[in-house]
Amino acid sequence: MVTAKQPPLEQRVLQFIREHRLVSSQHELLVAVSGGPDSVCLLHILAKLQEELGIRLHVAHLNHQLRGVDAEADAEYVADLARQLGIPATIEKRDVKAYQAQQRISLEEAGREVRYTFLAQVAKSIGTNQVAVGHTSDDHIETILMHLIRGTGTRGLRGLQPSSRWQSSGNSLTIIRPILLLSRQGTADYCHHHQLMPRTDASNLSLSPLRNRIRHQLLPLLRSYNPRVDEALLRTARIAGDDLAFLDSESARLWDELVQRQENTIVLDKGRFLELPSALQRYLLRMSIEKLLGNLKDIETRHIEEIMDALTKPAGKRLSLPGGLNFFIDYDKYLIGPDAAALSPFPVLGGKFPLKLPGETHLSGWCVVATIISREQMAEKDEDFTAYLDFDKTGDRLVVRSRQPGDRFQPLGMSQPKKLGEFMIDSKIPSAWRQRIPVVCSPEHILWVVGWRIDDRVKVTKGTKQVLCLKFERD
Predict the structure, then answer these.
(1) What is the pTM of this model?
(2) Are residues 117 and 88 in contact, defined by beta-carbon separation less than 8 angstroms?
(3) Residue ranges per structural domain of the chain
(4) Contact assessment for residue 457 and residue 416, using Cβ atoms and an 8 Å cutoff
(5) Is residue 35 left, alpha or beta, with left meaning phi > 0 and alpha meaning psi from -120 to 50?
(6) What does the pLDDT look like over 317-333, one tens digit per residue?
(7) What pLDDT digit, counting tens, does each position of 461-473 carry?
(8) How far apart are CA 361 and CA 258, in angstroms?
(9) For domain 9-225, is the CATH number 3.40.50.620?
């Protein structure tokens, strides 16, 4: 059987770049080069293609200060290679261990954050927002397995993409992977063929990082069960990618119908959300969190599943999420944000405020207008922030405050007093709002839960001589 000869590596990479529209002509392109075979192969191929692609290259190399003289030698090698290729280079060093101690994260995570922050800064300095990295199909396979081990959803099964977005602490970067179609062995063979003599990082042999254990232990074991397991994993990633592309389009279509963003809070229509298939629910939740945080790096599948399990819980339920976010369940909506109370139409009440009767009282974002009128002067009440009360029954020593433990009142139309907390629950007042709702009180009892109900004992009757009209307006 005669097998078709593959085109040269450079042409395969060129085709891959064009197929996925990874670069635009007349643009600077930053290339991250560690000195290892993958990134050296990437740089060498891009250097050959830069005229055809119409791009200008710039090399970036970061010394993480973790490997002593070996790291210094890596930097010298990259600088020399860039000079030979006639490509400008930015070579710096950063203290990754100090950053790890400061942030209290793993060394691997610290290295990644420091590295991409450095790359974002260099990219900005040369007028681009793109960096090319030397990830190969082997990295792609290892990433799929790593996500699977950590309990991923469909998004994790997709593995590495030809292009992705990195964002952190005000820095953002588009990461492109032009040699994702090549194997690690392929890049090593390319470097050997062109006598590039790339550097070898001894830390890649350590079994401490999870990725290295997958590379050196798990993958060889899986290949003993299925010699074509690499193909199977790549096929799974393609299928997951197709599924996610469909979910992307469906979620974009539904977003404007179901979702509102109010400052730093996402609001989901509860009724319509519950009608969706679970796959779309999960996807919209991830989209919502990503829009608030800028990325999903700390959001694990378990966080999404905890939300899914809570969707039918009673109003008032709250779940904590990474990044300082919370998931709140309201009566007719779900909220994702740092503070559901921020969506309350009521400002924070900061104490107890005596009312001027008659007159105007300014308090915590409100202006309370009080007038004394006759029954004949009463207009038909058309809003919840105006109340008519029997002035002879209320007295003139009224205050406005927030609710307090043990509060009770007799809602209009009821014959017996009721706990204010129970009234608020029955009235489906969002729990995050309850402490902000103004309560008008006399020395004896509550007269009005502003925005909802007056007390039955101070209602206007045929025998009322003077009517107290209270109107709350936003100040």
Answers:
(1) 0.70
(2) no
(3) 9-225, 241-343, 353-474
(4) no
(5) left
(6) 888 899 889 898 887 88
(7) 999 999 999 999 8
(8) 40
(9) yes
